């Protein structure tokens, strides 16, 4: 059986954060209708993919999945078990925002089968949290992490954002120090990205907020790698660090170019080189599911060259490029074509080559996108 991961989008949020460009809705009127649609969509795809696939991970992302009642999430998990072959020890992650859960609710999530929790802390500095318009403060975030452990979660991840306006190196380091002092096995550290259409973007355009330059961003990034590596976290993707044995199975599906199905508004799927995506708007999504069972609004079938480029990009951004897989499954000539550039990158300290694998060094991770843009 082939491995398959499942992503489930829960679009509901308490409010809209200034930097967010995810599809999210602030109204809860439609949660029941959404559940009905989700179940129909799961059923639709199970008829196509159940037979040959075993589900190795389920990931509830959003939006704010932890805002939902545990029974709501349980119903989706049970239905997915009913319709797909879910591996007995599949990783089941719930994105959780501090301020939306207490110990009882976390316990209930653990009891319904969630075994990995990804907590959107973003910062342990109150002024930074206020700037990001998050609903929690530093104490709430710390309490949520402690409560998660007490509720039986061992696999706890947290998200942090660096290069916020006026963020000194000391302030960023404080965030990292606080994170590693808590019961955390996995850290995702992202640089603040200015997305078009967000409130933050408008604030920057209006001159109300100043963002630091790329060099400062790179300094904070290198500080992050050095600090977390020294504390026993292994970097296994540009922005992701884990204690041994706690890499995220679901994220590795994306980065190792494996198959996944995405259910819900704006969700993307990728199976055997074909990618498709759903309607973003809730009304369109619900209507489409009602009429035809799925909510596909677009799709693309990748050419062999596109597949190779994506495989190389995702591999180098994560655990490294397997040259045997590249040669046998994608493009036998790729290495030859890029050899000169490759040797130059190795000589300059951006890459290293171990038998069958090519991996970015710390210096290479920092300029990953520039490196990838030059491959032929
Ligand atoms: S809670 Fe998350 S998904 Fe919701 S608006 Fe804020 S950043 Fe976006």
Structure write-up:
By secondary structure, the chain is α/β, with parallel strands linked by helices. The chain has 2 domains: 2-255, TIM Barrel (Alpha-Beta Barrel); 304-373, Arc Repressor Mutant, subunit A. 43% of the residues lie in helices and 23% in strands. It has 15 helices and 15 strands. A 9-stranded mixed β-sheet has the order 7-8-6-5-4-3-2-1-9, sandwiched between helices. A 3-stranded antiparallel β-sheet has the order 10-11-12, with no helix packed on it. Strands 13-15-14 form a 3-stranded antiparallel β-sheet. It is globular and about 60 Å long. Bound molecules: iron/sulfur cluster. The site of iron/sulfur cluster (SF4) has 10 residues, from loops.
CATH topology group of the largest domain = TIM Barrel
What's the story with the biggest beta sheet? 9 strands, mixed
- What is the CATH level 1 assignment of the largest domain? Alpha Beta
| CATH architecture descriptor text of the largest domain | Alpha-Beta Barrel
Oligomer category = single chain
SSE arrangement:
Elements: E1 2-10, H1 31-49, E2 53-62, H2 70-83, E3 86-96, H3 103-111, E4 116-122, H4 126-131, H5 138-150, E5 155-162, H6 169-181, E6 186-191, H7 199-205, H8 214-230, E7 234-237, E8 240-242, H9 249-255, E9 260-263, E10 268-271, E11 274-278, H10 282-292, E12 296-301, H11 304-317, E13 321-322, H12 323-330, H13 334-347, E14 351-354, E15 357-360, H14 362-366, H15 368-373
Parallel strand pairs: 1-2, 1-9, 2-3, 3-4, 4-5, 5-6
Antiparallel strand pairs: 6-8, 7-8, 10-11, 11-12, 13-15, 14-15
Helix pairs in contact: 1-2, 1-10, 6-8
The protein binds iron/sulfur cluster.
């Amino acid at each position: 059986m082939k491995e398959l991961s499942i992503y489930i989008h829960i679009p509901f949020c308490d409010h809209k954060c200034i930097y967010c460009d995810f599809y999210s809705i602030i109204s809860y009127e439609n949660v029941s209708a959404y559940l009905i649609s989700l179940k129909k969509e799961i059923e639709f795809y199970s008829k196509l993919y159940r037979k040959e696939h075993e589900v190795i991970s389920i990931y509830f992302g959003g939006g704010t999945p932890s805002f939902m009642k545990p029974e709501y999430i349980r119903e989706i998990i049970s239905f997915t078990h009913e319709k797909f072959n879910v591996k007995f020890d599949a990783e089941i992650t719930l994105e959780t925002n501090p301020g939306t859960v207490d110990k009882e609710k976390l316990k209930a999530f653990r009891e319904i089968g969630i075994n990995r929790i990804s907590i959107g802390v973003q910062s342990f500095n109150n002024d930074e949290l206020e700037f990001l318009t998050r609903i929690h403060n530093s104490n709430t975030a710390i309490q949520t992490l402690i409560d998660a452990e007490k509720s039986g979660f061992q696999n706890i991840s947290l998200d942090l954002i660096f290069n916020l306006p006026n963020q000194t190196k000391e302030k960023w380091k404080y965030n990292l120090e606080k994170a590693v002092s808590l019961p955390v096995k996995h850290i995702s550290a992202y640089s603040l990205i200015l997305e078009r259409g967000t409130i933050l973007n408008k604030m920057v355009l209006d001159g109300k907020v100043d963002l630091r330059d790329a060099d400062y961003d790179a300094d904070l990034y290198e500080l992050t790698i050095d600090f977390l590596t020294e504390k026993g976290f292994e970097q296994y993707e540009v922005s992701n660090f884990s204690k041994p044995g706690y890499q995220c199975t679901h994220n590795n599906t994306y980065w190792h170019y494996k198959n996944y199905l995405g259910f819900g508004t704006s969700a993307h799927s990728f199976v055997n080189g074909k990618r498709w995506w759903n309607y973003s708007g809730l009304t369109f999504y619900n209507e489409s599911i009602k009429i035809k069972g799925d909510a596909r609004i677009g799709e693309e079938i990748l050419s062999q060259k596109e597949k190779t480029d994506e495989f190389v990009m995702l591999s180098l951004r994560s655990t490294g490029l397997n040259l045997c897989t590249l040669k046998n499954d994608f493009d036998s000539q790729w290495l030859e074509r890029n050899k000169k550039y490759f040797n130059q990158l190795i000589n300059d300290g951006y890459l290293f080559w171990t038998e069958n694998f090519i991996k970015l060094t710390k210096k290479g991770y920092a300029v990953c996108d520039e490196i990838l843009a030059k491959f032929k």
